[in-house]
Design goal:
CATH superfamily of one domain: alpha-galactosidase from lactobacil brevis
Shape: globular
CATH topology of one domain: Beta-galactosidase, Chain A, domain 5
Strand order of the largest sheet: 4-5-6-7-18-14-13-10-11
Strand content: 25-35%
CATH architecture of one domain: Distorted Sandwich
Low-confidence stretches: 1-37
Structural class: alpha+beta
Oligomer: single chain
Distance between the termini: 48 Å
């Protein structure tokens, strides 16, 4: 009996030291070990068990839910799913007096030690509910046995700057909780980004992803006894529900990890995103494509593709074929619709004609079908830009359907097409869907170039704050889901003035192929954006404008958009061919593990080195990419590689000069020197197990 007793005691000690999730009123859950696959199911059934305060909260009729929810009628049901590696439960809490029901859809992912849930509030009665406010989809405390700092690895949002998605590392203090929320109603706009890693003193943590394409919030604060509380949800909600009315909340996912390196959690989360929050085509996640444009950059007053014609577009597709540089997707951006182009440009620009969603028959007399046919003939897909949510004054949508448009005084000319209006949404689904089908469009690119929160606020009814945002966000998902169901092989490119609409729900349906509207072709910024976004997301893309190593490597990402002028003398066909061939070799490395090699400080200056590592445990290979910017005075830096087997020997090849050396994983972890004799240069190392 004694050996068994010792084993039990050791297990108890390990569990007590582990990083645990415990709602404030349910300390018994401290013994759950999230990392064991079977424990994910146990955690769900025990956390949401009858008689316990669940890890979410709200205020109903002025009272906090912790005071009454254990008295509500409770049920928990295991759901049958066809999705491999996922367990699902439906947990309901019903107030027998008022008829308010809270349904929590919970999923567990044993392979990743992850859980996620979304709440649905429903009024099952025949009268209005009382006010529902302060809804926190997550409201729980994580505790650590070890003493020390609680840190949060998070990121800046997108503001069309070199600092877009810059990694940030914050240490929590008792006086300064970390409060995150985006600007303008777009989930990754300017001030915040809905993915972060909470790191405990005992080398454990939780990576959190929020799915809400609106204004979310996350407040992370220290609590007593070595704990940290996470409260998150939709920022503005103070409303009542009409009879039989239902709403949903943000989706929140948490992935639990342990290890000496916080990137253990981030890399597991990247894999989780690919497995469970990435668009599937033929049961495989959709790869971010290599795209090519149509010779963007015509003379003034042309802008975007407002001067493109059918003949010229088809000729450019054929020229790509002639030069041996056919991309996977041909990308037609803004300016193909009515009002753009023309001999005198009296109709205006691409911007002022958003809302004219009819093909300009002057420049494209046969619609866009000849372009898609030409793309398909050379073995490529065809993608077209739309911005259906914005309608400019005087355009088609403004004239034909004013009843579906929202207007605020702050924006004199732009109207918002109300996706929260069910009739309008259903009409748009069919209208755009028919356009896509008629023109042979394979991939759909949706942009959104306006702040949206002010529209929601203006149109909310009294005592129904947040309702318009909820309905609009639900409508956006319904619209995208319709397109994806109608076109099973479609990929949606998610753009909103660049990458300002990235969250867990949009990553599940789309890929940000143009992640920022930062100055086109300024590649030092592109280096920063890749460095920051890779912490949490494996799929994202940007443009490449030059075919030299510095330009190409700066634009490296899981997706890339070529912007070469094939009618000028700039560049070389051979260099373009080399870039595409090299890109196809390097792209798969973005699908596994990522490690930043030059820290978490400000890397936006022109006087820095920047370097990162992409490691593939699947075949024990990887790459290191480094840049020495123009004002940097150091000819070399030393970087320590991560994620390698210390006992394995690796052949390391410098792609700049072809030289190879063999080093052990232990030696590479201790440090390897990157050398560039001149500034404004790059280095690429490839390594593989010997």
């Amino acid at each position: 009996m004694k050996p068994n007793l010792k084993r039990v005691l050791r297990l108890v000690v390990c569990l007590a030291a582990a990083f645990m999730l415990m709602p404030n009123d349910a300390l018994a859950q401290a013994t759950q070990k999230i990392a064991v696959p079977t424990d994910v199911g146990k955690w769900i059934t025990s956390t949401f068990a009858r008689g316990k305060v669940p890890p979410f909260s709200f205020v109903y009729d002025g009272k906090p839910s912790a005071e009454f929810i254990r008295k509500w009628k409770h049920s928990i049901t295991r759901e049958e799913l066809e999705q491999e590696g996922v367990m699902a439960y439906t947990v309901t809490y019903l107030d027998p007096q008022s008829g308010l029901q809270v349904k929590c859809d919970v999923k567990g992912f044993p392979q990743f030690g992850a859980v996620e849930w979304v709440l649905h509030f429903t009024n099952t009665s025949t009268v209005n509910t009382k006010q529902i406010r302060d809804v926190k989809v997550t409201d729980f405390t994580m505790r650590s046995v070890a003493e020390g700092n609680f840190d949060v690895l998070h990121s800046a949002g997108c503001s069309a700057s070199r600092a877009d998605f810059r990694p940030l590392y914050s240490t929590l203090t008792e006086t300064e909780p970390l409060k995150m929320s985006p600007k303008n109603g777009r989930p990754s706009d300017i001030s915040a980004y809905p993915f972060f890693n909470i790191i405990t003193p005992d080398k454990r943590g939780a990576v959190v992803g929020i799915g809400w394409t609106g204004t979310w919030f996350a407040d992370i604060a220290l609590v007593e006894k070595q704990g940290v509380n996470l409260a998150s949800g939709m920022k503005t909600m103070d409303l009542h529900l009409y009879p039989n009315e239902s709403i949903r909340t943000p989706l929140v996912a948490m992935l639990f990890w342990e290890g000496d390196d916080y990137m253990t959690g981030n890399n597991l989360f990247r894999r989780f995103i690919l497995s469970h929050h990435t668009r599937k085509v033929d049961n495989e996640y959709a790869h971010a494509p290599l795209c090519g444009g149509f010779d963007w950059g015509d003379p003034a007053p042309c802008n975007e593709y407002s001067c493109l014609t059918e003949e010229f577009a088809v000729a450019l597709i054929n020229r790509h074929k002639q030069f041996g540089i056919v991309p996977e997707v041909f990308w037609l951006d803004a300016g193909w619709y009515e009002g753009c182009g023309g001999p005198d440009f009296s109709g205006g620009s691409w911007w002022t004609n958003a809302g004219n969603w009819r093909v300009d028959k002057t420049r494209f007399p046969n619609g866009l079908k000849p372009l898609s046919d030409a793309a398909h003939k050379v073995g490529a897909k065809f993608m077209v830009w739309f911005e259906p949510e914005r309608a400019y004054e005087g355009t088609q949508f403004r004239k034909e359907h004013p009843e579906w448009l929202l207007k605020v005084d702050a924006d004199k000319n732009n109207y918002l097409f109300d996706l929260g209006n069910k009739e309008a949404n259903e009409w748009l689904c069919k209208y755009i869907g028919d356009m896509i089908e008629e023109n042979g469009i394979d991939y759909y690119r949706q942009d959104f170039n306006m702040p949206i929160a002010r529209f929601w606020e203006v149109y909310d009814e009294p005592e129904r704050k947040g309702m318009h945002e909820i309905r609009y966000v639900e409508g956006l998902y319904a619209y995208w889901d319709y397109l994806l169901k109608r076109f099973p092989e479609m990929i949606i490119d998610n753009c909103a003035s660049g990458g300002r609409r990235i969250d867990l729900e949009t990553t599940s349906r789309s890929i940000p192929l143009w992640r920022t509207d930062y100055r086109y072709g300024e590649v030092n910024g592109y280096q920063c954006h890749t460095y920051g976004l890779n912490f949490f997301l494996p799929l994202h893309g940007t443009g490449v404008y030059g075919a030299d190593n510095y330009n190409f490597r700066s634009s490296l990402s899981s997706a890339m958009v070529t912007n070469w002028e094939l009618t000028s003398k700039r560049g070389s066909i051979g260099d373009m061919q080399k870039v595409l061939a090299e890109y196809m070799v390097l792209r798969p490395y973005f699908m596994e593990d990522y490690y930043p090699l030059t820290g978490l400080g400000d890397l936006t200056g022109d006087d820095v080195w920047l370097a990162y590592q992409l490691n593939r445990p699947s075949d024990k290979s990887g790459i290191v990419v480094g840049f020495r910017r123009k004002d940097n005075k150091q000819t070399y830096i030393e970087v320590k590689l991560r994620g390698l087997d210390p006992t394995t020997n690796y052949v390391v090849r410098n792609e700049n000069d072809g030289k190879e050396q063999t080093l052990s994983g232990e030696q590479l972890a201790e440090g390897i020197t990157l050398t560039l004799e001149k500034p404004l240069d790059s280095i690429l190392l490839k390594y593989r197990a010997e």
